[in-house]
Specification:
The structure is a homotetramer of 386-residue chains. By secondary structure, chain A is an alpha/beta fold. Helices cover 35% and strands 22% of the residues of chain A. Chain A has 2 domains: 136 residues, NAD(P)-binding Rossmann-like Domain (Rossmann fold, 3-Layer(aba) Sandwich); 189 residues, 2-Layer Sandwich (Dihydrodipicolinate Reductase, domain 2), CATH 3.30.360.10. In chain A, the strands form 2 sheets. Chain A has a 9-stranded mixed β-sheet with strand order 14-13-12-11-7-10-9-8-15. In chain A, strand 2, helix 2 and strand 3 form a beta-alpha-beta unit. The relative contact order of chain A is 0.16. Chains in contact: A-B, A-C, A-D, B-C, B-D, C-D. The interface between A and D is large, with 48 and 47 residues. Chains A, B, C, D: This is Gfo/Idh/MocA family oxidoreductase. Chains A, B, C, D: It comes from Natronospirillum operosum. Chains A, B, C, D: GO terms for molecular function: nucleotide binding. Chains A, B, C, D: InterPro entries: Gfo/Idh/MocA-like_OxRdtase_N, Gfo/Idh/MocA_oxidoreduct, GFO_IDH_MocA-like_dom, NAD(P)-bd_dom_sf.
């Protein structure tokens, strides 16, 4: 993987909007982009205060600092050494405008999820990306784990037979207690005007929804949902369960919450087909449990025997050496880099295993949110998807 | 525990109906009844063929064999050394009549689940048991595990604060493939006239439903359900998901299936309250994961430090020595024995930790089945319980 | 398995010496003997006080109580309905004499481990058993777990190729703290005259030593040992590590302790051959980790696909229903019962999978203890076995 | 952590010797150095072929490429923008000369393990580093995991009381089969002139030895060892067990092998004291099992409640997001960077939790190897350390 950019004779250039010093997601994006040596971070906008934004760039040893994302996009667009990709990691309500502008100026885009505030905005970005003919990656980071890629490949290859059940859950505990930041809305996540119509669905529901489809390769045709606040006195949603139906008769279920006291980061899927089942847990990401029908259970491991090229190409370290969240993020940047380099060097096709989540995936997540909320509003009925 | 029956000067006497040689559940009942030395099996009816039934009794070294349950109840009722308890482990459609008869003749009853074919039959047994003033245990065996008792006690003691989420799942895989016995209905489980209106809900749905309530101490006020067959060509239900609401605003979810290829016996609950969470998995039954809010996770173990009397009284072996399904069953018989001995010796009250599931619990399971099926029939709407 | 004794027309008869009410091992032996319906406990000696012994028998609903083991053996030997087997679960220093007497009176014997106080006594019992032509089972109970039997069968069948490493560890924590019972020697385990020359080696070292051989099928040719007390102020050994060599060039290692603070009952083996490895942990006894060379790891489970008859014949409950220590004990009694019945009915051969540990295994454990202590006494040198 | 180098106004500069494109350890070092933004890689020597070395630098987007480590050190020493640190990841037999030269030219050093070929060479480097007054980090990477740091801090704080047992094992399986590269010695690891006197002790024995001391804070006073080849026909050592004694009466044990068929990367320690025990497994690195005496077991997790500053300062992502081997490596570079910056900015003391392994630790590993081999040569006797 270290020679992906050799053909260019330079690393790709990345500009970041949001994610300054002290931000968790900022260091994850920069670390993910640079880990494999594909990207160099050349510009950033970290604060609406020009002085603080500039200082942040200096502290991070990033060459060019800007006072706003809009200014960055405008200024960088005119440079001969302009960035190849703009990465957007600001609060949700600014994604649409920034991504719109970046596309309009001809940049490829990496954008945090949820993609936008509404499905309409998201559909607009889908159109804009198509018109601009630019690459657009949405940061559904869990798709970058090698064993998630392995599961996806096995299912695509028919190893499980026809799928019958798709379950995905995502349990966190950090909202088990109603916080002061929440009640005063000093945390933007709790302000619907900034974060969107459903905290839980936007924050982690879209992850679970997307992961289920990314791995299963199937799209539910209808759903019924329960979305609510379980913590006494809370306004924002902290809990959702969703039941789904697929056209082939399979059934699915999603359970997401951030109010499960003591839960850590329990993203997990279990998928069963006529010929076997798969189980993956984000907290032990280097293992994939495979249960072939009528045969002993297998534990597939990253770097171990029996893995597909889909898993190997996003693995960095040999068997038994754990890789984690940062590496999964790097795999999204890796796939994006591969696609950008292919564009720059005139290649016409990518590996079938290049699988970064796209703007369409991001838009699908917004439709999921709105469909689930419609089911709730109508008393818990089944609602078709699209 | 070995002296529970010393006051009587004899072990309790048990008669069993159903569960002859080769039957899984038969040996589990007999082993459960005798493991702690509380019961002696004195009579049995194992087959509708008088000769085979008698031979079965001889093979099992049981003194008296009968050609039918009805005959057994009649004949044993008149003996001076009559059994204290009649245990019924026949196909579901015979539970009601046999239990009715046993109660009418003054026996205490142990009965397999699902209790009956319909909620109406079940309610009738509740009335009959009350009128006869007899003890009636329903074999929800998972309630006998020490760490299930521990979880129940912790929640009752308020350790989790107010409960907010109750999830219970039960995944099996033996029906992943449609079998010949099923399509020809040579297995009574697939004949609704014998097993009841929903295979999956009767077989394991009632277990999950009851366990959630046994541990949480809360009864859902409404539910919405999806109940169906996922295996292509199957008639009988093999899959159900249920979403529940509780009066205090908590939410719940149940997922049961016997068609999850490769799944073993994945009965598991996760319960979260304002002050912490608990997780238990039947396949590692001697552990209970306790997640106190804002403190490190604890792994409570059977026989280990920090356990309640509720767990200790149904533990037989010291720390680290695994106890399993047979022992859980024995704990139901233990609690029943304790209650019978209390009656016989004129004690007026039992330990608060005596917790065998009752005829009311069995009837509640039947109401759960009918309510869930009503939700499905009405298009997946929310339906109140009772 | 329920018809093992049908040919006799009666259950086998067992007399127990030691293990009265309140004794952990007493209820385990009685439960193990009766769980499968093979044995009926007909007589017992539970105390050197005649009155207490008799009362214990009454409390346990056992027909005949005696004031001593010697009296029991003498009295029962003359009865027409005399016991088939005498089970000895008294303190270690009485095993030799009681077993000697039982053999002399023609009884088959079940005896707790360590077999005796010295290797010389043990060798004497081997001779006595041969001369008496009686069956003699030593209660190395961990050999009764289905997945231990599975491991043994796989290795015997060559699944691992030639063995290269045999590791067995057994970590307990209940002696992490020096107790009052210990310093005053009110607990017989701490009195070498009663328990033998090395507490740790007798109590659990022999288990680990035997298990390694039972599963691997190989006998070390030499060892070097470290045996000591690690708890400050303790006299008795609470820790041992042993390195072993095998004739085929394989190496082995044993680690046993009862002073590992917080450890539960961590008996575990890991065995590696040229074609794969096996791992088993007593605390998750229903799983066996199988690592075939260059292929994905498998988790074999009790009752699951791919198991041998050796495992199935000592499994009672279907897949995913945990079986534990009590059931493992029952499997020793099961194998012993099968052998006794074979004798009584004139069968000449037993199943190759009948595998109860014998008096020779018990004697080998005593030689292990003495060889290990010799290595220590000589400064930690390598000492040949036998 | 992102502002560690802000005071310098530039990232630190790193030159790397060895580890070109395709090298596993090369990308790990570069990724580790740059992940947190502390270092920029400015120069490299990747091949003894000048053209290939230059091309490698170009492919990796590294500014200056050299045909040899010696040339790099000489040339870079004279630059005004000379590197702060030289990282050496060449075969073992070149470590001593390169590190010697780097120290002589005033560079701080990061060096792979085993430090040298002999203890004498290693002692020489200790002297050289002291004389040059330069920082010297040895890449014992497992010391960088947050939960390893947590364990070390807990023990140093006395949480376990006085230590009684220190066990460390490290099981790999990639040498289960004798390879062609091995028999023809086309892999330098199998050439003692290049890799040193004991493959297994140099490759992973030193890791296990160091980790035991790093965490326990105790140094064994004597050892006895078994070191050998278990694979038939192999010359190089692939297996070692070591028993240790500590001055306070504690005992220890080490088990390392690369020939355990099917094993992955099983580095694990278990340490027990008078007040509790700790257990850590590299394959689940974000968990630390803590067993306080007489209290329930706790599972401490990276980013979770109850952690020390020692763990937090080397954690990058919030609770439940796994961090792995690459991040552990980054933590060594982080600690080294912190120390270099402190030097450059005239700070006199470092955090007590800065804990990068030093040249003295590297030398201790070489003494361990030689002492263990001496024990073997003398027939398995106990040998004092130093």
């Amino acid at each position: 993987m270290t020679t992906l950019t050799s053909a260019l004779g330079r690393p790709l250039r990345l500009a970041v909007i949001g994610g300054g010093p002290g931000s968790f997601i900022g260091s994850i994006h920069r670390g993910g982009a640079t880990l494999d040596g594909h990207f160099q971070v050349v510009a950033g906008a970290f604060s609406s205060d020009p002085e603080r934004s500039r200082q942040a760039a200096i502290d991070l040893h990033i060459e060019r600092g800007y006072a706003s994302g809009a200014e960055l996009i405008d200024a960088e667009a005119g440079r001969p050494d302009r960035p190849d990709v703009i990465a957007i990691m600001t609060p949700n309500n600014s994604h649409h405008a920034l991504a719109r502008q970046a596309l309009a100026r001809g940049f490829h885009v990496m954008c945090e999820k949820p993609l936008t505030l509404t499905a309409a905005e998201a559909d607009d970005l889908v159109q804009a990306a198509r018109q601009a003919d630019r690459l657009f990656c949405v940061a559904y980071a869990y798709t970058g784990f090698p064993m998630v890629r392995q599961a996806r490949r096995m299912i695509a290859d028919g190893v499980l037979g026809e799928l019958r059940m798709v379950q995905c859950e995502y349990l966190q505990g950090h909202l088990a207690r109603v916080s002061e930041a929440e009640t005063r809305a000093t945390d933007w996540h709790f302000d619907p005007a900034v974060s969107g119509s459903s905290l839980i669905l936007g924050e982690i529901g879209t992850h679970a929804w997307h992961l289920a489809q990314f791995v299963s390769g199937m799209q539910p045709s209808a759903l019924t949902a329960e979305v609510c606040a379980t913590a006494p006195g809370r306004q924002a949603h902290d809990y959702a369960t969703v039941m789904t139906r697929y056209d082939n008769g399979a059934r699915g279920m999603i359970w997401v919450t951030q109010a499960a006291a003591g839960a850590e980061h329990g993203l997990k899927f279990r998928i069963f087909g006529t010929e076997g089942g798969l189980e993956w847990h984000q907290q032990q990401p280097n293992e994939l449990i495979y249960r072939p029908l009528d045969q002993p259970c297998q534990v597939l491991v990253k770097g171990g025997p029996g893995l597909s090229e889909a898993a190997r190409r996003v693995s960095r370290v040999v068997i038994g050496h754990p890789e984690g969240y940062q590496e999964a993020f790097a795999s999204l940047y890796h796939d994006l880099a591969e696609a950008v380099v292919a564009r720059e060097t005139g290649q016409t096709s990518l590996s079938a295993d290049n699988a970064f989540p796209t703007v369409e995936d991001g838009a699908d997540g917004m439709h999921f949110i709105e469909t689930a909320l419609r089911s709730v509003a109508e008393g818990g009925v089944w609602v078709p998807m699209r």
